[in-house]
Design goal:
alpha/beta, 10 helices, globular
Length: about 220
């Protein structure tokens, strides 16, 4: 089955351009779009796409509020949200990751990066484009208050689970972590599941935010 995608952006050229690019891929199908957040929420509820490309700034309802409503619905299988922004550094990015968005990317990213992003997010992974991810999170984190105290639950992680969490925070995918640790990808998936369960986190994006906020991983 193809990956189904919905595009929410107030610029028609962006919707059409991204739609044409993604529709040309044999494993991706664009099933709808919307020019504002309010319409996006209604259409996503009706269509239940695998992935939503959500612009941060839109009329009627901004992308953050729209994403928050979609994520709060708790549908199964979950709808993954990939936030889009035109800004290199944007506090909205941090808020989006905190609420459970699967990732973000810049609108001017190369076409192949957008295609890869959709596939990675659809696979349940988060925080694609590691170099951009590290830079944005590092910059936003650096401008926030000093790291809060570490959650006691971090002490429940095994050394390998802590290592996996640190690698997730750098933006690596499961396959990349597996290659780094010389283990099977399924083993990494098991570790990731245990990390999320022990830390009572919804997804990898929240794991990254916790890793930075707690000081487990420091911007560099």
């Amino acid at each position: 089955m193809p990956i189904t995608v919905f595009i929410a952006d107030d610029q028609a050229m962006v919707r059409q351009g991204f739609g044409a690019l993604l529709s040309a891929q044999p494993d991706i199908s664009v099933i709808g779009d919307a020019p504002d957040g309010r319409m996006a929420v209604a259409e996503v509820a009706r269509l239940r796409p695998d992935v939503v490309l959500m612009d941060v700034r839109m009329p009627e309802m901004n992308g953050l509020d729209a994403a928050r409503q979609i994520l709060a619905a708790g549908w199964e299988p979950p709808v993954r949200i990939l936030m889009l922004t035109t800004f290199d550094i944007d506090d909205y990015v941090y808020e989006a990751l905190g609420m459970g968005a699967s990732g973000f990317m810049l609108k001017d990213a190369p076409a192949e990066e957008l295609i890869r992003a959709v596939r990675v997010v659809a696979d349940g992974q988060a925080l694609l484009a590691p170099t951009v991810t590290r830079r944005l999170i590092a910059d936003v984190t650096r401008r926030r208050a000093a790291p809060r105290s570490r959650p006691a639950a971090l002490d429940s992680l095994t050394p390998r689970e802590r290592e996996v969490l640190e690698l997730i925070a750098t933006g690596l995918s499961n396959a990349e972590i597996a290659a780094r640790l010389f283990v099977a990808e399924q083993t990494v998936k098991t570790h990731v599941g245990k990390v999320l369960a022990k830390l009572d986190l919804r997804d990898r994006a929240q794991a990254v935010v916790l890793a930075y906020e707690s000081g487990l991983v420091t911007p560099g």
